[in-house]
Write a structure and sequence with these properties.
The complex is a heterodimer.
Chain A: E1 5-11, H1 15-26, E2 33-39, H2 45-52, E3 60-64, H3 74-83, E4 91-96, E5 100-101, H4 105-111, E6 117-126, E7 132-134, E8 148-151, H5 152-158, H6 170-184, E9 188-199
Helix pairs in contact in A: 5-6
Chain B: E1 3-9, H1 13-24, E2 31-37, H2 43-51, E3 57-61, H3 71-80, E4 88-93, E5 97-98, H4 102-107, E6 114-123, E7 129-131, E8 145-148, H5 149-155, H6 164-178, E9 182-193
Helix pairs in contact in B: 1-2
The chains are: A alpha/beta, B alpha/beta.
Amino acid sequence: MDKKLHIIVLSYQRVIPLRIVIDCFICQTYPHWRMTIIHDGKAPEELKSVVNSYKYDSRISFIETDTLNGDFGFPNRKMMLEKADPADGEYLLFCADDSYYVPRFVEYMLSATSNDVGIVYCDMVHSHIGHDVLKGELKINHVDMGSFIVRVDLAKRTGFNFTKDNVYYADGVFAEECYAEGQRTGLRSEYIAKPLFCHN
Amino acid sequence: MILHILCIAYERPIETSGFIASILAQSCPDWKMTIVHDGHASPEFKRVIDFYPDPRINFIETEVRQGNWGHENRKVFLQLINGQPGDFVLITNNDNTYLPNFLKYMFRTVTSKVKMVYCDFLHHNIEHRVLKAFPKVNHIDMGAFFVEIKLAQQIGFTHDEPASDGIYAEECYAEIRKRGFQAAYVDIPLFCHN
């Protein structure tokens, strides 16, 4: 059976950037993915209209939370992680609604997986360093939530442990903790030395 | 200073949507775009265009399909752009994507002496690794540089082989240096060639 990636997109009222992230997944060379867009709070009509324009693609689904949870979307990530089902994809990617992925991102990332691979991560072009290339590493300040995929069971065992104190670098904390849990349970990490993701 | 974006398209509505969205998401709003579809566009393609009712975007379909990698349309429509002195022109394709600060970073290198600006890019031909740009064949892509519009129109887009991108870049670079002007280089990947 083909491996599948479940992409969870955290969205908050940015219509045009959201189109970019949806379009770049529809353009992927590898078609076995599923996308859940979760909007923090009630979405404006314009954003709903954008999402509706993709209703022809059954891989994409859309959720709005009842209330605005804030905290850079981390409470929503935590909720989605707890709900994640391997049937939607054996690996998870959390990304923001203004990210860009090259068309072979899913193909490259899933190609690097095997039974004993828990995490696959890649280099990225990052806005915080003037859109220069950041070499990916699974540690704070060297990784972004959108630059690695993690096996669902590993991610669930790790949990998404953000606090008010680490909310600014919770991405890196999650990556570090997934890595440590993978090491503890005999799961390897694979690195792709190509900037397949642009953080905007 | 305005960047005139000339995008030569042939179908691929989703890629086109991503391309347009990446321009609309630019942090610098000083651009205009002409999308030239080679021959009559499909309803799906037109729906994408209709989704972006931005007055800066102009859509044209040619009466007949020219083919040949779009070079004939580049040649013709480059000359039809009505730019002001000091404006620039970027010729690009509808499956490219630009990072949100592309225009901002490129424009801030411009001085009265600078008539061409080029940047690094992610290129699918090298598995999306970074290609360090230089204005010569095999080291540049059409979408990775822009040229002052009057100069570009004087040089013209005159070739029709697959490597015409690079030849046009070489010609622009040579002419700029001959006239005592400069080309500026931004050594960060601001453009993804897909």
